[in-house]
Amino acid sequence: MLRLHIQGVPIHPALVHFPVALWSLAAAAQAAALVFDHAGLWAMGYWLVLLGVIFGALAAATGVLEFADRRRFPRHSPAFHMAFAHMRWMAAAWNCFAIELALVQAQPPSSTIGAIALGLSLTGFACMTWGAHQAGRLVHSPQGLHATYQDHHGH
């Protein structure tokens, strides 16, 4: 069984907070940059997106490795489907932000590219929010990981 921990702390749940915080701040900074025509806010948003994409890739890699553990995620179990839904939504969020990075730079873009970038950022934020909801269901619902743990440990 592959358990990714550092001193007893699971790595995936520890990492996921970084892209969530970074992308949330990025969306707010970019929206404010476009509303107030503020180049510094745009640059800040760009770097927040970039860091979020990096941390998102690390979080995704550790999540996929944990998902590969079929004792925790038996195929066709509710936990498997919840985890897979979480992964799909978070991958969609990551792709929105990665595409945005490919379109823009740290300098404020034209109004058209800026609007597209903000649209990608807000879409990524919505996907991330729904993906986080799916993770919450996985961890806290009676059919999620708790049920899988009980099935395998007889509690």
From TrEMBL:
Transmembrane segments: 47-68
One Pfam family this sequence matches: DUF2231
Residue ranges of every copy of the DUF2231 domain listed in the record: 8-139
UniProt entry keywords in alphabetical sequence: Membrane, Transmembrane, Transmembrane helix
Protein name from the UniProt record: DUF2231 domain-containing protein
Organism: Spectribacter hydrogenoxidans
Classification lineage: Bacteria, Pseudomonadati, Pseudomonadota, Gammaproteobacteria, Salinisphaerales
